[in-house]
């Protein structure tokens, strides 16, 4: 790891974590180039549909591998035909057979998983042969009890402002007060923080199942957030509307924003009914709410967090920022100690 301050490391994303990159549908029959996590990535599927990811840079002259040809688990660079395998090994240099580049492993490779309709990448500090398991919340893994839709978008600005926004339940009472599901409850509240096995919950005291009343932050080897919003009966069968969020830096001025809209419903007519209602009546309303968030965040100054006057409602934001800064400092210290 190069030398970073905690803020610089957080800007591009902590290391040794799983991050969502894009919906699975983004990657089809040709290689795709994505900028994420301070890197340019080349992603492709082999003949069996298995995903692979490399740095999008040929080790010969730096040409984009994503412009090349798929040869199973290899990409052939379009510039001089150099073939790079999914583990970063150069397997063939057709213009100079037997040269020292052949058999070397100069290209950074990444471990990829597909889950919950999304491509996930393990952002390892150093190449690893076996990454830790990708552990997601039950709503995204228990298909027998939960149904979900992925809502993906990209917002201008630092992804950490998106984290702040979700860790701020009180904004729902004001910014989204015209929403069909966030018009109820008190317009003032006191908040508390409750620790969990994987993180913490920031919640209103004395109000539950009325509005956007709490947010959970969790670290299970990937960072995700969870909240619930009560739904009227017109929203179809099932309990509260559950939202799982995870956010990835594209650049310091662009964020990949993932929200899974979930409902606890068994397979069968109830889930089918909800999915029909969601796609035909509810989805547009939810995108409208997201547009309110996007408009607010994109029109904030990049240094807005340097000019804040915080109060009790912001305890969750402060807790999360301190936690992330502590994780960044720990990674920097670990790297420095390993090089001594």
UniProtKB/TrEMBL annotation:
<feature type="domain" description="Rieske">
    <location>
        <begin position="18"/>
        <end position="121"/>
    </location>
</feature>
<keyword id="KW-0408">Iron</keyword>
<keyword id="KW-0560">Oxidoreductase</keyword>
<dbReference type="GO" id="GO:0051537">
    <property type="term" value="F:2 iron, 2 sulfur cluster binding"/>
</dbReference>
<keyword id="KW-0411">Iron-sulfur</keyword>
<dbReference type="InterPro" id="IPR050584">
    <property type="entry name" value="Cholesterol_7-desaturase"/>
</dbReference>
<keyword id="KW-0223">Dioxygenase</keyword>
<keyword id="KW-0001">2Fe-2S</keyword>
<dbReference type="Pfam" id="PF00355">
    <property type="entry name" value="Rieske"/>
</dbReference>
<dbReference type="GO" id="GO:0046872">
    <property type="term" value="F:metal ion binding"/>
</dbReference>
<dbReference type="Pfam" id="PF19112">
    <property type="entry name" value="VanA_C"/>
</dbReference>
<dbReference type="InterPro" id="IPR036922">
    <property type="entry name" value="Rieske_2Fe-2S_sf"/>
</dbReference>
<dbReference type="GO" id="GO:0051213">
    <property type="term" value="F:dioxygenase activity"/>
</dbReference>
<dbReference type="InterPro" id="IPR044043">
    <property type="entry name" value="VanA_C_cat"/>
</dbReference>
<protein>
    <submittedName>
        <fullName>Aromatic ring-hydroxylating dioxygenase subunit alpha</fullName>
    </submittedName>
</protein>
<dbReference type="InterPro" id="IPR017941">
    <property type="entry name" value="Rieske_2Fe-2S"/>
</dbReference>
<keyword id="KW-0479">Metal-binding</keyword>
């Amino acid at each position: 790891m190069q030398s970073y301050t905690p803020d610089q490391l957080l800007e591009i994303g902590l290391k040794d974590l799983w991050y969502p990159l894009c919906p699975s549908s983004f990657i089809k029959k040709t290689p795709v180039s994505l900028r994420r996590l301070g890197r340019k990535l080349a992603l492709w599927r082999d003949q069996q549909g298995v995903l692979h990811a490399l740095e999008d840079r040929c080790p010969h002259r730096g040409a984009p591998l994503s412009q090349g040809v798929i040869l199973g688990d290899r990409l052939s660079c379009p510039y001089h035909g150099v073939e790079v395998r999914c583990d970063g090994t150069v397997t063939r240099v057709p213009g100079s057979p037997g040269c020292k580049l052949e058999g070397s492993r100069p290209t950074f490779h990444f471990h990829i998983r597909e889950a919950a309709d999304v491509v996930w990448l393990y952002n390892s500090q150093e190449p690893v042969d076996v990454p830790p398991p990708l552990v997601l919340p039950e709503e995204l893994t228990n298909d027998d009890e939960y149904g979900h839709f992925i809502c993906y978008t990209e917002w201008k600005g630092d992804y950490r402002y998106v984290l702040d926004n979700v860790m701020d339940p009180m904004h729902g009472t004001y910014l989204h007060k015209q929403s069909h599901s966030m018009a109820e409850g008190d317009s003032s509240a006191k908040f508390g923080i409750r620790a969990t096995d994987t993180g913490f919950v920031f919640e209103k005291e004395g109000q539950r199942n009325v509005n956007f009343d709490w947010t959970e932050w969790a670290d299970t080897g990937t960072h995700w957030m969870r909240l619930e919003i009560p739904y009227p009966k017109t929203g179809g069968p099932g309990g509260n509307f559950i939202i799982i969020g995870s956010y990835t830096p594209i650049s310091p001025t662009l964020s990949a924003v993932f929200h899974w809209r979930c409902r606890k419903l068994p397979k069968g007519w109830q889930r089918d009914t909800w999915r029909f209602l969601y796609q035909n009546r509810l989805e547009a309303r939810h995108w409208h709410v997201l547009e309110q968030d996007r408009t607010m965040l994109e029109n904030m100054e990049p240094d807005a967090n340097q000019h804040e006057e915080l109060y009790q409602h912001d305890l969750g934001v402060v807790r999360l920022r301190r936690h992330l800064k502590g994780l960044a400092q720990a990674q920097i210290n670990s790297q420095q100690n390993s090089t001594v």
